[in-house]
Amino acid sequence: MDFTDSPEEAEYRAKCRAFLDATLPRRRPGHVRGYRRGEDGPDVVPQAKAFQGKKFDAGFAGITWPKEWHGQGGTPIQQMIYDQEEANYDTTVNAIGLQLSICIPTICRWGTQEQRDRFAPRALRGEEVWCQFYSEPSGGSDLGSLRTRATRDGDEWVINGQKIWTSLAHEADWGVLIARSDFDKPKHEGLTFFYLSTKTPGVEIRQIKQMSGASHFNEVFFKDARIPDSQRLGPVDGGWKVAMSLLMGERYSMHDEFGPSFKELFSLARQLELNGRPAIEDGGVQDRLAEFYVKAQGLRFTRHRIMTSLARGEAPGPEASIGKLVAATKIQDAASYGLELLGAAGAEMGADMALEGIFEVSFLDSPAFRIAGGTDEILRNTIGERVLGLSPDLRADKGMPFKAIPVGSK
Amino acid sequence: MNFDFPDELKQLRDTAREFLVEHCPSTLTRKALESTDKVDRALWREIGEMGWLSAAIPEAYGGLGLGHLSVCVLAEEMGRAIAPLPYSSSVYMAAEALLLYGSEQQKHSYLPRLATGQAIGTLAFVETAGPSNPASFDTRFVDGRLTGTKVVVPDGDIADFAIVAVRSLEEGPSLCIADLGDAGVTRSIRPTIDPSRGHATIRFDRAPAEPLPTAKGATAFQHLIDRAAVMMAFEQLGVAMAALEMACDYARGRYAFGRPIGSFQAIKHKLVDVYISTELARSNCYWGAWALESGSSELAVAAAASRVAACDAGWTATRENIQTHGGMGFTWEMDCHLFYRRARLQALALGSAREWKRRLVGALCARESVATPADIAA
Lengths: 410, 378
What we know:
The structure holds two protein chains of two kinds. Chain A is α+β, with helices and mostly antiparallel strands.
């Protein structure tokens, strides 16, 4: 049992570090500026795109992708080492992370070599940004309930309907879309998968203002938007399988989430006074800090277990499924506890507040993490059914023609 | 990166699990719970013959010299089986104290007998309610004689000898070894929340004892407890895993309202939360095992983190196992209470999670940085 890299891993890590040192500022302790703090200034996406280009040039974009996808043909452990190193630097690159985790892999997996050649290099270089037209007002967690209609018209498809919670659509050049091509079939059997330019006539993108005041996501309206059949991925009515093929693929994040980590809570508790003593000496504070620490270390060392499997060329065990679920609540709780320690002064916001105001910002930002990319509840269902072998919930709409299923809010 | 147990220890784990399923079923735990004859001596000697009691004892003292990772693996299986055996007392506490602080003569005298199972050892340190502070122990060792009273001594009813924590005067010895058969030692068996393991109050009245020569000051006692806590955390994890599996089995097979109860999110989501607490505990425990085996300076922090996480997993899993079983879970007949009792017994021995949380933060404050050497990314 050891934490040391193999000689090959150490060499790769050194290469990652050399590139990152030359390209990005290292994160300073307690320094929480940038996208990590949930800010969405006008620089975030341009900076992310510029850095993605440098990553590509240095050979760190698409590390595990095969050569036919214009990737590096590397191993999952190399990806993990790179991510682990990148997490030590200030970067906003995650702002455009979705295209490389979901959109382009879907294109490459289901598309032609020409499509791969057209889209993969530009996404890997950060020249083009992608979004994902999935969720709808009538179907978020229950994605299969989507109602956006795709009607065949000769060599084209005509799209009508509405998507929502589409992250980055307002910055995106392209999007992948799942729409209903047959309303008479059961809900998962009448869906077809496409991609399209966000500039397609009939596509209207409106930014949604989030509770935090930021606007990362959008609602998108399709009114007689036309897509050539050549931009269909997978068979007609076979779109569910296409969508699931990438949603199921787990990515093992090495990054801390965008919020206060244990380090920030710990230094806050050392800075503040409680009854004339450092807050860290208070028993109640110690109890809570220990609980946060054990959770943080539990996640950290779970990643080491995942890395160990990847280093051996094995698939990680079921423990890989808990990361997002645990981290999301941990951030919200850490933000809340930071405010509690700050007391009445914790209400005031601003970068001149303790720890650059991360607790106040994260308080308003963190509810998103428990919803985006699979809600806590959906993730618990998935783990309960796949890992613990418990029966799925009864589905009231099972086998019914889609048009007969009640949807939305009544 | 190799943050896992080696293959030969995974084989040991499989062998141990198979053996315990066959030879140490819950009926044996139940038998111990319901009688005064707690330990199956034949079974104890058999696991001695298989080397489980001597895995971390060097060959020079009659052991296998496999190192502490092997004990961690076996501890988890002991927990899984809720074995009614003095494994923690003899292995994590008595043998560990001798390995750390015993003289050559003491090691040669005691360790071979612990290794075979011929002798059972324990650690006696608790004197009163609340955290045990070595600086305020009443038990004294003066002129080769031990005087004082220790309570809830695990396996104190059957142990042949005890490592006894004493008030350390001026960097004097903080741990002694005493033969419990000697004149001057009185033991009275006490009821506990988990009668599948025996406990006793032990009174030493000028009982003959020897100091463990290198156990000086309170830190020696703390260090022993840290090391024992990692091994105990694995045993706690084993109990939690077994309770979680029992709850999931029941949730899969028990029907209500025309469907398996595990299909209800109220049950499913709760069991997922239990699963998460076991995985977080396992990851912390692996870190503790690494620190234990490598002799890392991180041990104090890693041990406390393992302990806190394992206490949480044990409590959550055994409590929700009862709840998942409903009324049946509250019966004497179902095994749920065996896990519930054992998990709490483990979580109290060596001090409660509350105490370990304070120690954890104290140990973090004592370091220059929160970043751990084991964590490349920090």
